[in-house]
């Protein structure tokens, strides 16, 4: 079945540092890939998505590229802000629209 | 446009008591999901509805959990009786698409259940 493995946290960075959160997936077929973000006390929000190989999803300065050859969808941001502190979840879609989520990576950005 | 609405946001009960959670999805969304999120983990699907039909409830512990989505709009998830291990956040999500489509899922804020 489908599954997602993402980098364990917690991750602590200084403001304006470069961020990478690794995510690899296993799947049958050609799943869509997603990054969701969960701010403290809130529900999950879609951050970005990609629906086919080589697609790049981007939003709020975050980017991730769907790499079929390495089965990866790593999240990157060139310069993080304190407001980016949250938990980030990688997810893969599957037939029937069942999503499989990773365990989440907690990011803390310090001024 | 209003997002997914869930209530209550927080619930504290004693073990063996019943509890119910309510979800109203985004207007027009055909598919509704209930997820369980334990601390430090990602959401895990409990049940998925397409309109009023439960099309995937394989992960729902049917001895104590039940759900309904009458009229294919809002939904209720019930636990009876609750156990200590049920303490978690219960998330509701909805999406436009039906089976076979990998649509974006939109999540509500969740209900944090504490069982004492």
Report on this model:
Chain A is mainly beta and 111 residues long. Helices cover 0% and strands 49% of the residues of chain A. Chain A has strands at residues 3-6, 11-14, 19-21, 23-26, 33-38, 44-50, 56-59, 62-65, 75-77, 86-92, 100-101, 105-110. In chain A, strands 2, 5, 6, 10, 11 and 12 form a 6-stranded mixed sheet that branches. In chain A, strands 3-9-8-7 form a 4-stranded antiparallel sheet, with no helix packed on it. The mean pLDDT of chain A is 92. Chain B is mostly beta strands and 116 residues long. In chain B, 0% of the residues lie in helices and 47% in strands. Chain B contains no helices and 11 strands. Chain B has strands spanning 5-7, 10-13, 19-24, 31-37, 44-50, 53-56, 65-68, 75-79, 88-95, 106-107, 111-115. In chain B, strands 2, 4, 5, 6, 9, 10 and 11 form a 7-stranded mixed sheet that branches. Chain B has a 4-stranded antiparallel sheet with strand order 1-3-8-7, with no helix packed on it. The radius of gyration of chain B is 13 Å and the shape is globular. The termini of chain B are far apart. The model of chain B has no long low-confidence stretch (mean pLDDT 91). Chain A binds chain B through residues 4, 31-32, 34, 36, 41-46, 49, 51, 89, 91, 93-99, 101-104, and chain B through 4, 6, 31, 40-45, 48, 55-56, 91, 93, 95, 97-110.
């Amino acid at each position: 079945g489908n599954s997602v493995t993402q980098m364990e946290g917690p991750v602590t960075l200084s403001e304006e540092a470069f961020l990478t959160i690794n995510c690899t997936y296993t799947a049958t077929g050609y799943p869509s890939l997603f990054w969701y973000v969960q701010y403290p006390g809130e529900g999950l929000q879609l951050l970005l998505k990609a629906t086919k190989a080589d697609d790049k999803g981007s939003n709020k300065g975050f980017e991730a590229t769907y790499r079929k050859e390495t089965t990866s969808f790593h999240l990157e941001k060139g310069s993080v802000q304190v407001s980016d502190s949250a938990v980030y979840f990688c997810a893969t879609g599957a037939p029937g629209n069942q999503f499989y989520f990773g365990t989440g990576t907690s990011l803390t950005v310090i001024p | 446009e209003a997002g997914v609405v869930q209530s209550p946001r927080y619930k504290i009960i004693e073990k063996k008591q019943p509890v119910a959670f309510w979800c109203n999805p985004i207007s027009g969304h055909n598919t509704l999901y209930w997820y369980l999120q334990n601390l430090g983990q990602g959401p895990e699907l409990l049940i998925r509805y397409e309109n009023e039909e439960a099309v995937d409830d394989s992960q729902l512990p049917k001895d104590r959990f039940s759900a309904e989505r009458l009229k294919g709009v809002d939904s209720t998830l019930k636990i009876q009786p609750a156990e200590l291990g049920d303490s978690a956040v219960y998330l509701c999500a909805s999406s436009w698409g039906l089976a076979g489509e990998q649509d974006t899922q939109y999540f509500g804020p969740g209900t944090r259940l504490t069982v004492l």
